[in-house]
Inverse folding.
């Protein structure tokens, strides 16, 4: 059944172009809205089953001999993500119906979106590493296509390419890690790898594998310093940003880290890397978000920061932290999804997302303002029981204080973790307030092109549903605890958490941390114009973006320059490359394998007529080079050919001699016919360097050929098969001339192709001569 | 004898390769012709020379020379004839069209 859930969006993507083309009266989105909803309903029906501790496994074989299969596995963790993907997917499709006009390229949009949906479901459900990688890259590709949806904009194309390059780079490194894992454990199934976690832990490649896989997870989940693609990805239509770039795709890295938690979790290096980069991302993202002026850019940096926070919690390695991470994955999807949709509504209704020009929208758009209020305050972690964001954030503080560890390394870092958590959260509070108050309260700051008014109800449904979750989960968090959070945590950590979520813990350190965040956040928010200049110091001129641009452009410059140095267009140079390679490869092989042997025991006796002919041929061959006159050169070349046919006579090859004689005669005639039309031989001297190189290369080739010929004569590795032909020629081929029988009978097909080649050459020659006629007529 | 012929094949290859590296089209065609001669001689030499009579079955003859290299060479002679004549006409055609037979000037443009 699971494979059909993954397959359904792909199949829908197939029929979308037809729907778009033939049913123009209805917005295509309506027609395909039931698909994600159906998938959502299916996963919802699995809730009880999974929360009772059952799992589900099904799949299709792909290349079983290589261990590549589409095997899908449903447990608490994949169920949580599947619900998010299909649920938010449904809401996003609904929202997009009102966001995108019927005249837009809806066929492209929905094809890409549904490919993404299928791929993302594939990522979270795949148990096979190859299938996982395939779907993983497919999400990168569909994300690329969706960011570049308005491809006529330069910024869209830039953002699309950037996201693609960074995530695919990470994906490739992840594949390396996964393949290493499968080599060590001898299986391609993630479940079986986890079962063999001891082998992995003892492996000398453990650190390498961890780094490679985390590189994939970090690039996908926009962790510092790979976060730079996410703000540029905001060029995508807002439904895409809400879906891919906040709720689902950017959580793929978190999913992967959580999925492989049982393999890596609890080790020092896992803690240092995941928590370290997570905290850095949390602080940097929230710090940078305050500086942004574009509504979606604020949300993008906020997403980066929140992803960092979830990563941090996974890095803690405790059961409570894993539970908090799961809880925050859910909460973030609800409040950030709704905020993105509100940003889209504001953009749609006012024509701008520039926060410096917005303000006072509360009276004009009261519903949107209310939705933004809940989203932003939940994101800020305001301690009220109606905001789900507060609950998970407080858990984050709590777990950051409760780092239980036996390792001295972790113990030495642990005291800094709560401080950094608070630091990042203060800025989270500031930008959340900035987002809400600057957009919806105060005076209108700039002239807007259109008079803003409330969005159509259809556009509001999706954010309303998400905000309802924010409030309901805030009030009754344990409603989703048992069916969703507990099984997901169990799938990550391997043990059932016994966690009851409560709003009020009493006066505990975590509460004080929340208080500090709110107090300092309010102060910083109110005085933000006074300290804004700090951004001139940090980051100042340092920028990961500039590094990316520099590296990106340098690639092209360097490769272009490199290519230009050897792709000169000169056929002589290309010949030299080929010949030098042949000399090198053959020469080295001959030397390394000690291939050269000379064996004089089995040689034909030297006969003088043959030697004389050979001598004449050698002289004639060299004379061909030296001749200044065309006719002389052709005739001297003819001597080589006739000499060869004489040698064929001496060496008992009458057929060859005859053929060579005829061919040589025709060739010489042809040369003589053609030369008249060709210019005189060039008598200009070549530069000495080029000439020396030519001589060295040609003499080396000659020497090598001689050595190979002698070696192959002297070392007979195999028995000759000549006896077979001689024995069977009359019997099988019915002929006494063995060479003829071989040609027309035993290797008849070969001869057929030989004739074909000759025919093609004849056709080519004919065409070239006809071409002349036409050219002359013109 | 085989060693002498091996050396001859080497000389033919050297001359052929040297001509291939020249600028003029006609010389390049000469080069390919010499290379094929060299290759034929090489194949024949590899199969040992003068070990018996020509491979035409007759009563009373015990030893024949190896017929397989001969069959291969026969195919090759015909094909190299095709190639040489094709190249020759191509050279002629290229000269007529481009008004030069100097390969250094026939480099194409960057955007081809």
């Amino acid at each position: 059944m699971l494979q059909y859930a993954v397959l359904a969006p792909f199949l829908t993507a197939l029929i979308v172009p037809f729907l778009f083309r033939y049913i123009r009266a209805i917005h295509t989105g309506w027609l395909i809205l039931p698909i994600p909803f159906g998938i959502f309903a299916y996963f919802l029906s699995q809730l009880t089953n999974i929360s009772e501790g059952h799992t589900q496994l099904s799949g299709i074989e792909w290349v079983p001999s290589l261990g590549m299969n589409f095997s899908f596995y449903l447990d608490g963790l994949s169920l949580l993500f599947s619900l998010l993907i299909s649920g938010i997917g449904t809401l996003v499709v609904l929202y997009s119906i009102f966001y995108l006009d019927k005249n837009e390229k809806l066929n492209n949009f929905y094809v890409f979106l549904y490919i993404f949906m299928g791929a993302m479901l594939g990522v979270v459900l795949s148990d096979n590493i190859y299938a996982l990688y395939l779907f993983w890259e497919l999400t990168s590709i569909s994300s690329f296509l969706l960011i570049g949806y308005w491809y006529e904009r330069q910024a869209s194309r830039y953002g699309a390419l950037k996201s693609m390059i960074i995530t695919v780079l990470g994906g490739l490194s992840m594949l390396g890690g996964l393949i290493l894992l499968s080599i060590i454990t001898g299986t391609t199934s993630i479940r079986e790898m986890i079962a063999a976690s001891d082998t992995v832990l003892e492996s000398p490649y453990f650190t390498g594998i961890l780094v490679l896989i985390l590189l994939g997870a970090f690039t996908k989940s926009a962790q510092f310093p790979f976060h730079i693609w996410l703000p540029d990805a905001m060029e995508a239509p807002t439904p895409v940003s809400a879906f891919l770039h906040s709720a689902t795709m950017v959580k793929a890295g978190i999913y992967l880290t959580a999925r492989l938690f049982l393999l890596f979790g609890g080790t020092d290096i896992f803690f240092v890397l995941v928590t370290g980069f997570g905290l850095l991302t949390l602080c940097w993202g929230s710090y940078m978000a305050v500086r942004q002026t574009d509504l979606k850019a604020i949300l993008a940096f906020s997403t980066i920061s929140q992803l960092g926070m979830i990563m941090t919690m996974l890095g803690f390695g405790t059961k409570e932290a894993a539970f908090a991470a799961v809880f925050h994955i859910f909460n973030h999807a609800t409040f950030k999804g709704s905020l993105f949709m509100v940003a889209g509504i504001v953009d749609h209704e006012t024509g701008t997302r520039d926060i410096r020009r917005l303000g006072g929208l509360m009276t004009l758009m009261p519903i949107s303002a209310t939705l933004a209020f809940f989203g932003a305050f939940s994101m800020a972690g305001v301690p009220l029981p109606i905001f789900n964001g507060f609950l998970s954030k407080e858990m984050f503080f709590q777990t950051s204080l409760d780092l239980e560890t036996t390792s001295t390394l972790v113990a030495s870092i642990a005291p800094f973790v709560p401080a950094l958590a608070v630091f990042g959260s203060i800025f989270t509070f500031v930008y959340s307030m900035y987002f809400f108050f600057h957009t919806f309260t105060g005076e209108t700051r700039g002239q807007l092109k259109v008079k803003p008014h409330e969005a159509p109800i259809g556009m509001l449904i999706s954010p309303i549903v998400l905000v309802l979750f924010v409030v309901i989960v805030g009030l009754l968090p344990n409603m989703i605890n048992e069916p969703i959070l507990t099984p997901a945590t169990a799938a990550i950590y391997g043990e059932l958490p016994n966690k009851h979520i409560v709003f009020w813990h009493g006066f505990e350190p975590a509460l004080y941390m929340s208080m500090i965040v709110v107090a300092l956040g309010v102060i910083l928010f109110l005085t933000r114009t006074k300290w804004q200049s700090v951004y001139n110091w940090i980051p100042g001129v340092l920028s990961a973006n500039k590094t990316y641009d520099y590296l990106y452009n340098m690639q092209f410059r360097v490769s272009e320059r490199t290519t230009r140095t050897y792709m000169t267009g000169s056929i002589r140079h290309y010949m030299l490359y080929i010949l030098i390679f042949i000399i090198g490869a053959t020469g080295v092989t001959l030397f390394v394998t000690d291939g050269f042997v000379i064996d004089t025991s089995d040689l034909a006796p030297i006969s003088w007529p043959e030697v004389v002919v050979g001598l004449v041929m050698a002289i004639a061959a060299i004379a061909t080079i030296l001749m200044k006159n065309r006719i002389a050169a052709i005739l001297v070349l003819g001597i080589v050919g006739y000499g060869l046919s004489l040698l064929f006579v001496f060496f008992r090859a009458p057929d060859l001699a005859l053929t060579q004689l005829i061919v040589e005669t025709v060739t010489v005639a042809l040369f003589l016919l053609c030369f008249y039309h060709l210019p005189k031989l060039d008598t200009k001297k070549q530069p000495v360097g080029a000439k020396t190189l030519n001589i060295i290369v040609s003499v080396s080739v000659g020497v090598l050929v001689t050595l190979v010929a002698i070696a192959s004569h002297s070392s007979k590795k195999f028995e000759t098969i000549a006896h077979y032909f001689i024995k069977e020629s009359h019997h099988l081929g019915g002929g006494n001339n063995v060479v003829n029988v071989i040609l027309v009978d035993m290797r008849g097909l070969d001869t057929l192709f030989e004739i074909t080649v000759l025919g093609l050459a004849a056709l080519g020659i004919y065409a070239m001569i006809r071409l002349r006629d036409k050219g002359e007529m013109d | 004898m085989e060693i002498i012929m091996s050396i001859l094949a080497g000389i033919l290859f050297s001359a052929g390769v040297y001509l291939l590296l020249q600028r003029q089209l006609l010389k390049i065609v000469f080069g390919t012709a010499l290379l094929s001669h060299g290759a034929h001689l090489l194949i024949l030499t590899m199969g040992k020379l003068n070990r018996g009579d020509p491979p035409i079955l007759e009563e009373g003859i015990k030893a024949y020379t190896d017929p397989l290299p001969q069959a291969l060479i026969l195919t090759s002679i015909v094909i190299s004839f095709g190639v040489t004549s094709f190249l020759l006409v191509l050279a002629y055609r290229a000269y007529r069209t481009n008004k030069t037979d100097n390969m250094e000037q026939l480099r194409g443009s960057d955007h081809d």
User: Anything to note?
Assistant: The first helix of chain B runs from residue 2 to 20.
